[in-house]
Amino acid sequence: MEINIAAVKAEVEAVFKAYETALVSNDVETLDRLFLNAPTTIRYGGGENLYGFADIAAFRSAREGGNLQRRLARTVITTYGTTFATASTLFYRDSAPGKVGRQMQTWIRTDSGWQVAAAHVSVIDDRG
Q1: Could you report how far apart the first and last alpha carbons of the chain are, in Å?
Q2: 52-77 per-position pLDDT tens digit
């Protein structure tokens, strides 16, 4: 298996950027499109464990969209072959001083394009 094929990595970097834009602007339609619509899709959030696309979509549509801005750091996107990738990043929010968020996503290429099949978000104390 080839790791980080340049063209594939560029595709995932672009869709990751689109995801980030949708996230901070609370573009629920785009967020839903970027998650795999399957009962096997999982998202562990900062305060919720969501099993299946239906749970994830319900969470997104109920969430208020205020103050979602954040700064990313140490983003690492790795592709494996042409159909599988991971994205890991740290994030910081002005509304959470002294904290660092961690986000990991598993991306797969589907007939609808690249989609998140699993995601994990957590926040810990920032120890520098």
Answers
A1: 35
A2: 999 999 999 998 777 789 999 999 99
